[in-house]
Amino acid sequence: MCGFLRRTQPSLYLVSCFLPSGVSSKMDSVFHGGASYKTPFVTFCSWKSDEHMNKCKNICEDTPEGRKQLTRYKDGCVRLRNPHIELMDQDILYHLALGSGSHDLQAMFGDVKYVCMGGTPKRMEQFAYFIMNEIGFKLPAGTTLLDISQYSYRYSMYKVGPVLSISHGMGIPSVGILLHEIIKLMYHARVKDPIFFRLGTCGGIGIEGGNIVITEEAVDGMGRPFLELPILGKIVHRPAKLDRDLAMELKDLATADDPWETHVGKTMCTHDFYEGQGRLDGAFCEYTERDKLNFLEKIHKDHIINMEMESLAFGALTYHAGIRSAVICVTLLNRLNGDQVSSTKEVLNEWQNRPQMLVARYIKKHLEDDKIAVELSPPSPATVKSPKKMRIVREESQSYE
Questions:
Q1: Relative to the CA of 16, which of 236, 296, 327, 349 has its CA 20 to 30 Å away?
Q2: Among 312, 128, 304, which Cα is nearest to 203's?
């Protein structure tokens, strides 16, 4: 399978390949000469267009084994689909105020197993304290949880043993930027097989407020199951696939005693809170209430049961990185009945804890099943490899717009 392809001359590609069983016959039609390869090899191809390279890449992505080769090293550590990163003297994660040359990222984050993301800094700080109690993590005397990314002034990040709790802001651009840097963080820290969760709020479609929706598939505002990205003047489609087995396991962790219903279904992810979601209460509205209801009823018949603004990017980027992921949201209202959230602040705060409770059950169960001890690990100055580079990272992070 194609682990790395790059142009060496205008008419040559250097291809480092490993072909899993079952893929070689497909690859024979692409690689000239018809040879089958079962072990790593390096060869030159004289094909003179990018089309050939894209064919190779797509064939590799067609199989689970092929995708794993693209996104994992043999020991299970996250592998980036970007050959340029390893050539850099330092990779600055601008929006996290961290750097591969300034911080010992493996010492700081190498034990991470679960990455939990949510919209606001306050919500994810609260989740950090909640998960700390749930998994029995103890802070050293005289210390408190630290916002690791405080010098970025953009996202907040807390580490509780093997769990990262991070705010991702609002909308596809914000969560997309964060995911690029968190996936790179997993790579630099040599994290093995992490699982990502998005904990959020949403509008239900045919589902009343206070209930949980676990996304089985994310679609855009047109109902398409992929993220559309313009890259170098070309449109790229990235499938927004979430881990179905993970979604069903989360659903199974709900109990009859829970004060909510747990649903699994499609999520519509929009680029906008108002017109994109068919609201009548934005600054602009050039459609009628009947138009809105017709649209909501139509997508509900297509098994779309909630709306929010991050799942498409979250699903597409984690799938492209080969990372298992799930989106768990609580509904704040049933959009078939209106646009305005009318519940009290106290009720909304309690509802927003519900996705956290479900994900905490999953984390706690797997830590116990895997017999992973949550160790007390006080901060250490050794995590800073270069104070000079750390100052540069902070300055870059604070000024980067």
A1: 236
A2: 304
